[in-house]
User: Fold Phosphate transport system permease protein PstA from Sporolactobacillus shoreicorticis.
Amino acid sequence: MNSKITNRIALSVIIVCAAAMAAILISMLGYILVRGVSSISWHFLTTSASPFLAGGGIKDQLWNSFYVLIITMILTVPIGVCGGIYLAEYAKPGRLTSFIRTCVEVLASLPSIVVGMFGMLVFVNYFGFKYSVFSGALALTVFNLPVIVRVTEDGFNALSLHQKEGGLALGLTHWHTIKTILLPAAFPSILTGVILSAGRVFGESAALLFTAGLSTPDLDFGNWNPSAPNSPLNLFRSAETLSVHIWSVNTGGIMPDVQTIANGSAAVLVIFVLLFNLCARMLGKVINQKFSGK
Assistant:
């Protein structure tokens, strides 16, 4: 009888905690979306921001967010996947492996503001990249790398040992087994983790305040020459992202419609982060069904 009562109490506590988390999430998202969705329009998404006049949009900031994200993922995914494969398949138990895993854990737990300060000291000042897309992408690479490493390692560790043994029994080398058997099998988990981490990077602001900058040139979307100062593809220009723009507008904006811009920008950011998460879930489910043959 006592066991049944204890079980009911534990179940009730778990349900209450889950309901509380869901209610907090729904209330936060609802507050942001209700206040901001009415401000979103095609004009708002395709018009450059104005520092003084009303009616400005978020075209450049939205582009900067995606551009920084793409460069970050180009830098992060190959290094992170290779690091995860090393830890899962090649690293032998010992002090070196324990040290590497400790470094990964420490990097994963660093506050983003600390990563931003590190990026400013190293990438902006020491290497002379200044406030730029490239500096921001490098800082976010440091911020995001541990996530990709852990996702890849966990994806490989979740595989059945028989898959690896089967490849080796057929006479395949270790690397060929990884490339042709283990990596395709772990791909759904890795892809889901990459998309989720992309959503995390897209909404990051603290690390970009000190690396990508608080301003952006008037981008010329008719000029795609990467060396042009106002080209959208220029890696070494300052790039205010959408999340940084929200912070900047809320703290120092002097436009007459500052609240409308802030609410609309926040709603756009939340919508894209939600889309990243939904895409990760859907892609993971589709790929799992494909690999499982269902």
Observations:
- The two ends are 43 Å apart (CA to CA).
- The mean pLDDT is 87.
- Residues 1-39 form one domain.
